[in-house]
Amino acid sequence: MPAGKRLILMGPPGGGKGTQAKRLQERFGIVQLSTGDMLRAAVIAKTDVGMKAKAIMDAGKLVSDELIIAMIEQRIDSADCNNGFILDGFPRTVPQAKALDGLLVSKGIALDKVIEVTVPDAMLIERITGRFTCKKCGEGYHDKFKQPGRAGICDVCSGTEFTRRADDNEDTVVARLQAYHAQTAPLMPFYKQRGLLEVIDGNRPMDDVTNDIERVL
Ligand code: ADP
Ligand code: ZN
Protein backbone atom coordinates (compact mmCIF):
# COMPACT_ATOMS: atom_id res chain seq x y z
CA MET A 1 0.00 0.00 0.00
CA PRO A 2 1.44 3.40 -0.90
CA ALA A 3 2.16 5.83 1.92
CA GLY A 4 -0.45 8.39 2.81
CA LYS A 5 -3.54 6.21 3.19
CA ARG A 6 -6.41 8.00 4.84
CA LEU A 7 -9.16 5.71 6.01
CA ILE A 8 -12.36 5.74 7.98
CA LEU A 9 -13.29 2.58 9.84
CA MET A 10 -17.02 2.47 10.56
CA GLY A 11 -19.18 -0.05 12.29
CA PRO A 12 -21.38 -0.61 15.32
CA PRO A 13 -20.08 -0.60 18.90
CA GLY A 14 -18.38 -3.92 19.56
CA GLY A 15 -18.03 -4.58 15.85
CA GLY A 16 -14.26 -4.93 16.10
CA LYS A 17 -13.19 -1.54 14.72
CA GLY A 18 -10.66 -0.98 17.47
CA THR A 19 -8.96 -4.35 16.91
CA GLN A 20 -8.83 -3.89 13.16
CA ALA A 21 -7.61 -0.30 13.43
CA LYS A 22 -4.72 -1.40 15.64
CA ARG A 23 -3.73 -4.07 13.11
CA LEU A 24 -3.84 -1.58 10.22
CA GLN A 25 -1.79 0.85 12.26
CA GLU A 26 0.95 -1.73 12.76
CA ARG A 27 0.82 -3.12 9.27
CA PHE A 28 0.87 0.15 7.35
CA GLY A 29 2.47 2.62 9.74
CA ILE A 30 -0.52 4.91 9.79
CA VAL A 31 -1.93 6.20 13.07
CA GLN A 32 -5.20 5.13 14.64
CA LEU A 33 -7.28 8.11 15.70
CA SER A 34 -9.93 6.77 18.05
CA THR A 35 -12.28 9.42 19.42
CA GLY A 36 -13.45 6.89 22.03
CA ASP A 37 -9.87 6.35 23.27
CA MET A 38 -9.25 10.10 23.30
CA LEU A 39 -12.39 10.66 25.35
CA ARG A 40 -11.56 7.86 27.80
CA ALA A 41 -8.09 9.36 28.27
CA ALA A 42 -9.70 12.75 28.91
CA VAL A 43 -12.05 11.20 31.49
CA ILE A 44 -9.12 9.61 33.34
CA ALA A 45 -7.13 12.86 33.20
CA LYS A 46 -10.21 14.78 34.40
CA THR A 47 -9.79 17.49 31.76
CA ASP A 48 -12.68 19.83 30.86
CA VAL A 49 -13.51 17.63 27.89
CA GLY A 50 -13.44 14.54 30.10
CA MET A 51 -15.72 16.11 32.70
CA LYS A 52 -18.23 17.05 30.02
CA ALA A 53 -18.10 13.72 28.23
CA LYS A 54 -18.24 11.20 31.09
CA ALA A 55 -21.96 11.20 31.89
CA ILE A 56 -22.88 11.21 28.20
CA MET A 57 -20.63 8.23 27.48
CA ASP A 58 -21.92 6.34 30.51
CA ALA A 59 -25.46 6.84 29.17
CA GLY A 60 -24.45 5.47 25.76
CA LYS A 61 -25.24 8.75 24.01
CA LEU A 62 -23.10 10.75 21.63
CA VAL A 63 -20.88 13.56 22.84
CA SER A 64 -21.55 16.92 21.15
CA ASP A 65 -20.33 17.36 17.58
CA GLU A 66 -18.61 20.59 18.52
CA LEU A 67 -16.43 18.98 21.14
CA ILE A 68 -15.56 15.97 18.98
CA ILE A 69 -14.72 18.05 15.91
CA ALA A 70 -12.42 20.31 17.94
CA MET A 71 -10.66 17.25 19.33
CA ILE A 72 -10.09 15.71 15.89
CA GLU A 73 -8.99 18.99 14.31
CA GLN A 74 -6.28 19.31 16.88
CA ARG A 75 -5.15 15.70 16.58
CA ILE A 76 -5.06 15.50 12.78
CA ASP A 77 -2.62 18.41 12.71
CA SER A 78 0.07 16.38 14.50
CA ALA A 79 3.13 15.38 12.52
CA ASP A 80 2.48 11.65 13.03
CA CYS A 81 -0.64 11.95 10.84
CA ASN A 82 1.35 13.02 7.78
CA ASN A 83 1.83 9.44 6.63
CA GLY A 84 -1.89 8.74 6.87
CA PHE A 85 -4.45 7.81 9.50
CA ILE A 86 -7.34 5.54 10.36
CA LEU A 87 -10.31 7.32 11.85
CA ASP A 88 -11.93 4.93 14.33
CA GLY A 89 -15.26 6.09 15.75
CA PHE A 90 -15.32 9.34 13.81
CA PRO A 91 -17.32 10.67 12.01
CA ARG A 92 -20.41 9.39 13.77
CA THR A 93 -22.98 11.97 12.66
CA VAL A 94 -23.72 13.87 9.45
CA PRO A 95 -22.44 17.19 10.89
CA GLN A 96 -19.19 15.44 11.85
CA ALA A 97 -18.82 14.04 8.32
CA LYS A 98 -19.34 17.50 6.85
CA ALA A 99 -16.82 19.01 9.24
CA LEU A 100 -14.32 16.33 8.28
CA ASP A 101 -14.84 17.16 4.60
CA GLY A 102 -14.09 20.80 5.26
CA LEU A 103 -11.03 19.91 7.27
CA LEU A 104 -9.62 17.64 4.55
CA VAL A 105 -10.29 20.19 1.82
CA SER A 106 -8.50 22.87 3.83
CA LYS A 107 -5.48 20.57 4.11
CA GLY A 108 -5.61 19.51 0.46
CA ILE A 109 -5.97 15.82 1.29
CA ALA A 110 -8.60 13.23 0.39
CA LEU A 111 -10.00 10.04 1.90
CA ASP A 112 -8.92 6.81 0.24
CA LYS A 113 -11.55 4.46 1.61
CA VAL A 114 -14.37 4.13 4.10
CA ILE A 115 -14.60 0.63 5.52
CA GLU A 116 -17.81 -0.47 7.18
CA VAL A 117 -17.53 -3.60 9.33
CA THR A 118 -21.03 -5.03 9.80
CA VAL A 119 -22.20 -7.29 12.66
CA PRO A 120 -25.80 -8.15 13.64
CA ASP A 121 -27.07 -6.42 16.80
CA ALA A 122 -27.74 -9.70 18.61
CA MET A 123 -24.05 -10.64 18.35
CA LEU A 124 -22.88 -7.22 19.49
CA ILE A 125 -24.54 -7.33 22.88
CA GLU A 126 -22.84 -10.63 23.69
CA ARG A 127 -19.49 -9.40 22.40
CA ILE A 128 -19.56 -6.15 24.33
CA THR A 129 -20.87 -7.31 27.69
CA GLY A 130 -18.18 -10.02 27.90
CA ARG A 131 -15.11 -8.05 26.93
CA PHE A 132 -12.25 -6.91 29.16
CA THR A 133 -8.68 -5.73 28.60
CA CYS A 134 -5.29 -6.02 30.25
CA LYS A 135 -4.65 -2.89 32.30
CA LYS A 136 -0.94 -2.88 31.48
CA CYS A 137 -0.75 -3.58 27.71
CA GLY A 138 -4.34 -3.16 26.56
CA GLU A 139 -4.70 -6.67 25.09
CA GLY A 140 -8.38 -7.49 24.62
CA TYR A 141 -10.09 -10.59 26.07
CA HIS A 142 -13.61 -12.00 26.32
CA ASP A 143 -15.38 -14.06 29.01
CA LYS A 144 -16.70 -16.55 26.44
CA PHE A 145 -14.60 -16.18 23.31
CA LYS A 146 -11.06 -15.38 24.43
CA GLN A 147 -9.93 -16.07 28.00
CA PRO A 148 -6.20 -15.72 28.73
CA GLY A 149 -4.29 -19.03 28.44
CA ARG A 150 -3.61 -19.03 32.20
CA ALA A 151 -6.52 -17.66 34.21
CA GLY A 152 -5.95 -14.11 35.42
CA ILE A 153 -2.62 -13.66 33.59
CA CYS A 154 -2.26 -11.66 30.38
CA ASP A 155 -0.92 -13.76 27.47
CA VAL A 156 1.07 -10.82 26.11
CA CYS A 157 2.66 -9.09 29.13
CA SER A 158 1.88 -11.39 32.10
CA GLY A 159 -0.03 -8.53 33.71
CA THR A 160 -2.58 -9.63 36.32
CA GLU A 161 -4.91 -6.65 36.37
CA PHE A 162 -7.79 -6.32 33.95
CA THR A 163 -10.35 -3.66 33.31
CA ARG A 164 -13.83 -3.33 31.80
CA ARG A 165 -15.18 -0.20 30.16
CA ALA A 166 -17.80 1.64 32.21
CA ASP A 167 -20.11 1.70 29.18
CA ASP A 168 -19.84 -2.03 28.40
CA ASN A 169 -22.99 -3.05 30.25
CA GLU A 170 -26.24 -4.25 28.72
CA ASP A 171 -28.33 -1.08 29.29
CA THR A 172 -25.69 1.23 27.84
CA VAL A 173 -25.07 -1.09 24.91
CA VAL A 174 -28.70 -0.88 23.86
CA ALA A 175 -28.50 2.93 23.89
CA ARG A 176 -25.21 2.84 21.92
CA LEU A 177 -26.77 0.61 19.28
CA GLN A 178 -29.73 2.95 19.01
CA ALA A 179 -27.42 5.93 18.57
CA TYR A 180 -25.51 3.99 15.91
CA HIS A 181 -28.57 3.12 13.85
CA ALA A 182 -30.15 6.56 14.17
CA GLN A 183 -27.13 8.82 13.79
CA THR A 184 -24.22 6.93 12.25
CA ALA A 185 -25.80 4.48 9.78
CA PRO A 186 -27.06 7.42 7.63
CA LEU A 187 -23.41 8.15 6.77
CA MET A 188 -23.07 4.98 4.69
CA PRO A 189 -25.08 6.26 1.70
CA PHE A 190 -23.12 9.52 1.97
CA TYR A 191 -19.83 7.68 1.38
CA LYS A 192 -21.28 5.06 -0.94
CA GLN A 193 -22.41 7.76 -3.33
CA ARG A 194 -18.82 8.92 -3.61
CA GLY A 195 -17.57 5.44 -4.37
CA LEU A 196 -15.54 5.26 -1.15
CA LEU A 197 -17.49 2.65 0.80
CA GLU A 198 -16.36 -0.98 1.23
CA VAL A 199 -18.64 -3.22 3.29
CA ILE A 200 -16.96 -6.07 5.16
CA ASP A 201 -18.75 -8.88 7.03
CA GLY A 202 -17.47 -8.53 10.60
CA ASN A 203 -19.35 -11.55 11.94
CA ARG A 204 -16.37 -13.87 11.34
CA PRO A 205 -13.01 -14.63 12.96
CA MET A 206 -10.88 -11.51 13.37
CA ASP A 207 -8.14 -12.71 11.03
CA ASP A 208 -10.64 -13.24 8.20
CA VAL A 209 -11.94 -9.73 8.69
CA THR A 210 -8.38 -8.35 8.64
CA ASN A 211 -7.61 -10.22 5.42
CA ASP A 212 -10.69 -8.83 3.72
CA ILE A 213 -9.86 -5.30 4.78
CA GLU A 214 -6.31 -5.62 3.50
CA ARG A 215 -7.64 -6.97 0.22
CA VAL A 216 -9.82 -3.92 -0.46
CA LEU A 217 -7.04 -1.51 0.40
P1 ADP B 1 -17.90 2.00 20.62
O1 ADP B 1 -17.69 2.15 19.14
O2 ADP B 1 -17.58 0.62 21.10
O3 ADP B 1 -19.21 2.53 21.11
P2 ADP B 1 -16.02 4.15 21.22
O4 ADP B 1 -14.84 3.90 22.07
O5 ADP B 1 -15.80 4.49 19.79
O6 ADP B 1 -16.85 2.83 21.40
O7 ADP B 1 -16.93 5.29 21.86
C1 ADP B 1 -17.33 5.28 23.20
C2 ADP B 1 -18.26 6.48 23.49
O8 ADP B 1 -17.54 7.70 23.25
C3 ADP B 1 -19.50 6.60 22.59
O9 ADP B 1 -20.59 5.83 23.06
C4 ADP B 1 -19.77 8.11 22.65
O10 ADP B 1 -20.40 8.48 23.86
C5 ADP B 1 -18.38 8.71 22.67
N1 ADP B 1 -17.89 9.01 21.29
C6 ADP B 1 -16.82 8.43 20.67
N2 ADP B 1 -16.66 8.93 19.43
C7 ADP B 1 -17.65 9.85 19.25
C8 ADP B 1 -18.04 10.71 18.19
N3 ADP B 1 -17.37 10.73 17.01
N4 ADP B 1 -19.11 11.51 18.36
C9 ADP B 1 -19.80 11.52 19.52
N5 ADP B 1 -19.50 10.74 20.56
C10 ADP B 1 -18.44 9.91 20.45
ZN1 ZN C 1 -1.10 -7.42 29.03
**Biggest sheet strand line-up:** 2-3-1-4-8
Bound molecules: adenosine-5'-diphosphate, zinc ion
* Number of E-state strands: 8
Q: How many H/I helices? A: 9
Q: Quick check: average pLDDT?
A: 94
Helical proportion, percent range: 40-55%
What would the principal axes of the Cα set say about the shape?
globular
Distance between termini? 7 Å
Low-confidence stretches: none
* Multimeric state: single chain
Alpha-beta content class: alpha/beta
Element-level helix/strand string? EHEHHHEHEHEEEHHEH
Radius of gyration: 17 Å
Q: Report the portion of residues in β strands.
A: 15-25%
The main sheet comes to: 5 strands, parallel
Defining traits:
8 strands; three-stranded antiparallel sheet; binds zinc ion; alpha/beta; 217 residues; binds adenosine-5'-diphosphate; five-stranded parallel sheet
Helices and strands in order, then pairings?
Blueprint: E1 5-10, H1 17-28, E2 31-34, H2 35-45, H3 48-58, H4 65-76, E3 84-88, H5 94-107, E4 113-118, H6 121-129, E5 131-134, E6 140-142, E7 162-163, H7 170-184, H8 187-192, E8 197-201, H9 206-216
Parallel strand pairs: 1-3, 1-4, 2-3, 4-8
Antiparallel strand pairs: 5-6, 5-7
Helix pairs in contact: 1-9, 2-3, 4-5, 6-7
The structure holds adenosine-5'-diphosphate (ADP) and zinc ion.
